[in-house]
Amino acid sequence: MFSTLWQQLDQLLYQYQPFWRFLPFYQVEPGWQHPALQAWLDRLSEAQLDQLELHEPWRRQQLADFFPQLAAVTDWIVARQTEAKPAAEAMPFWLARDIKGRKQQQIEFWVEQLPDLPLPLLEWCAGKGHLGRWLSSSKSRQVLSLEWQAELCAQGEAEARRLQLAQTFVQADVLQPASQQYLQAKQHAVALHACGDLHLQLLRSAAARQTQQLDLIPCCYHLIAQPDYRGLSQQAQQGQLLPLSKEQLKLAVQSQSTAGERIARLRHLEVWWRLSYQALYQHCTGQQHYRPLDSVAKHWFSGEFRAFADFAAAAHGWSIPDDLDVTPFLAEGAARQRQVRRQQLVRSVFAPALELYLVLDRVLYLQEQGYQVQLQRFCPAALTPRNWWISAARC
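Given the sequence above, the corresponding structure tokens read:
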């Protein structure tokens, strides 16, 4: 089943690649020509655009007529969302007191469904060990938690001692070959939202060590050391779609289903000002290429645009003339933002398919390595849109 579904995704994403591979922020003109789609985008009001960005089911429904072959795959993905079961047991307050945001509920949902095996547990990329702590307490299991930050290890170790749990910490960089020693054959390895190379390394290491059970929730597929992604499984490496750039991989994690209106407004302001700065940069320097700007602290978007522009220019090694009126560039940036948002709306409808394509690459790799693999959702998307759960047992 997984192989056939992956082939379908490989063909579909390859067929529609002009609609999602291009990067609206960097490219003024899209890589596709579709008059009916463009006319529909042009008719959207800003209010309609806001709603389409925030509500994925409506967005999918509105764009379905333009991409009919996407419907079958999308229906399969949506159907799997209903598999998530509510947690029967809530984490007691003395275990949950240090867990922020939705993380507690994510842990509760997952632990409720994890296979209960008579094996010691390895928590990969543990942080403070919240997941391992609840596993040790609720499953009465010995847990080894791997984490590279010494301070987090010390905090997690102190909490485990306070609660008298069978949980120990090892400070280790899991990307280094030496960390493979902590994986054993008679072991159950778990990782909740290990990013990019971190979960790829777990897959490779667990396969090499023939770890009996592996449960993984992958995240942030774009956080890899290599300049692009060339596949993990042999089947993916022989497909049509690869390689994928880091910018293209980011599309797989751009779901806004957990973002509130305030966060959405801040995101729109940041995009507007970044595009306005780009217009200013091009005007002042004569350079027409897009100049990327690294992550920016959110406080820069609570003041005046001029202050942000001066900051961005300094980061790029130039300065804006003191007497230059930057107001016209805000209008130019607003016009570009309207264009970018509509183009990004088109790209976004392919995000679930791209994420599933990447998840299935990991599933196929594990099957090639001799594992029996199950794939399902572990919690509602409202708790986290990164909710694909790969569960693999050594044959």
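Residues 261-285 form the longest helix (25 residues). Try to locate this feature in the token string yourself.
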